[in-house]
Amino acid sequence: MIVMNELSKSFGLQLVLDRLNLEIPSGQITAIIGPSGEGKSVLLKHMIGLLRPDSGSVCVDGEEITTMGRGELNRVREKFGMLFQNAALFDSLTVFENVAFPLQEKTRLSDLEIAVRVGEALSHVGLTGVEAKYPDELSGGMKKRVGLARALLMDPRIILFDEPTTGLDPVISRAIHQMIRETHEKFGYTAVVVSHEIPQIFDISDSVAVLYRGKIIETGTPEEIQGSSDPVVRQFIDGSLEGPIQLV
Amino acid sequence: MINPVQKLGASTLHLLAAMGRMLNFILYAIYTCVRRPGHPRHILKQLNFIGARSSFVILLTAAFTGMVLGLQGYYTLAKFGSEGLLGTAVALSLIRELGPVLSALMVTGRAGSAITAEIGIMRITEQIDALETMALEPFKYLVSPKLVASVLALPLLCAIFDVVGIWGGYLIGVKLLGVNPGAYFGEMEKSVEWKDVYSGMIKSLSFGVIIAWVCCYKGYYAEHGAEGVSQATTSAVVLSSVLILIWDYFITSVLL
After folding, report:
1. Looking at A126, A155, A184, which one is the last position of a domain?
2. Which residues of chain A lie closer than 8 angstroms to B31, CB-CB?
3. What percent of chain B has a predicted confidence (pLDDT) above 70?
4. What is the pLDDT of residue B1?
5. In whole angstroms, what is the distance from residue B241 CA to residue B136 CA?
């Protein structure tokens, strides 16, 4: 379980997270939705210690990570996998080398064992025959799938997805969502998905949190959120131009 | 409204913070080199990039530097009837000063800028964050191998620079202007001491630290997209070059 308590973060004069409170339950898919530029990715990066808050706490399985040193933080990060918005593949390495990288660096597996594990991870995300390609030779959807394969490889207990379908067509987006659901059911990890994909994100998530102006303004099941009467949530789900959310 | 005093204070604090961050960066980089040096293949790759692939530009610069020293030195010494000391003048200028400084400036321009751009692009495309989320130490992959390779490569490149420069001076002084070849090398042998050679090597080694430090640091903290990387690269080359020249003065005053 990840628990964020009174979390605040500013960049310069801009307050991005404002005494935010949120609990991410174990073994579920939690979606974080909200207008663009509201700090969803910033929130995600706090969960894995890539950013340190100005105040407040982040507890992962009961361990406070905001005050940890590098060594301790790396121990906690062993529990995590992360799929970045643009997949963040190492552009000088092939697909095989990208996926194999954490195994090569963190285990003593033989080359053959690594090759088998990489092949399995790629087949979980429906990719074969691309091992020798470089990231710039892949489509956006394929990059995301390679990123997911890399994230799955070390059997993490928690996977963070930062806008996994941004920039993809509706068919690929649905396929990625489906893949998240299927791999979640297969491996049982805790998933946190930051997304704008309304209403598709409701199909795969067990719970939803809405981030607005640095705070979680509503949490609930997808059905509860879809039936919400909160004007911000309503406007965001309906995609209406009228309402409290201002265009910037 | 921010008054000028507040502005000055804010700039000073910003500068101090940046200096502190730079100091932390190099201390942590050295710590990582000692505790978790990169894989030998990463170090070899960087040695090839920083060292071997800089050798052509070093050869070219060294040859012409030596030749111009030969030319200038000859006509200056001829005024005092001391053309025989040309070898000494060329060798001491190169070994003590021009070899270490010019080779370092060439490596900064060729490899330093590429280091900043490479790490900067990895930063803005979240590849460094990806390393961190895998519980891997980015310094081990991105900084330590470059620091080790730079410290090893610079003295070697400087040695090549010195030798080629001396032969460039020989070509002009002896072959073109008619200085006695025995005097060229004989006087050089008499006046160049080991202290001159190792002080040049110590300079090169410290310039290697400066190049890797500044260029990795600027890339590591690059931000604001492609323009940010471009600014970081420019700033890395300028800052490295200026620091090399400033540090050269201080280290010369100590080593002399």
Report:
1. A155
2. none
3. 99
4. 58
5. 32
